[in-house]
Amino acid sequence: MEALKLDEPASHPFNSPLETGIRALVLLEAFYPRQCDLIEMTWLDHLVVHTADLDGDDVPKSLHPDLPNRAGELLVRRRLLERSLRLMQQMHLVDVSDSEKGICFVASQDAPSFLDLLQSTYTVQLKQRAKWMANRFAHMGGAEIKTLIEAKIGRWTAEFQEEKSSGSSGSL
User: How many CA atoms lie within 13 A of 76 on its CB side?
Assistant: First the structure.
């Protein structure tokens, strides 16, 4: 057995494929049975931690700090989400399908059992915000959500994400 090397830096858990994958899984479970494409997941992943970017009296406080220029996060979030969703698929927690929208993701039948095990304060708050978002967006179509994203985090960012996606219409 190989000895543990104490001088090696530990991998950073924040915004890792595992953390982002769990966040994506929480969103997919909250939105179940709705299937989401990569663009939608990118938008939802941003909004679930920056809920204060949305309007309304019932909007929960953001989980992550409201830093200036956070809209730029979307530009790097897509590739990380893609890797994260692939990881969750390998763990049989996310199912992938090919539809008229392109490649879509949905929580697998094993997702609820796995998510029930996650009970940290952060995860509980994340689940609450994801359910709140799912309720808020339940009757909105893809065009309405895209308009909302453009108004809140910028048209250029939303369009950039759509152009970067291969074969996805960006509808929710």
Answer: 9
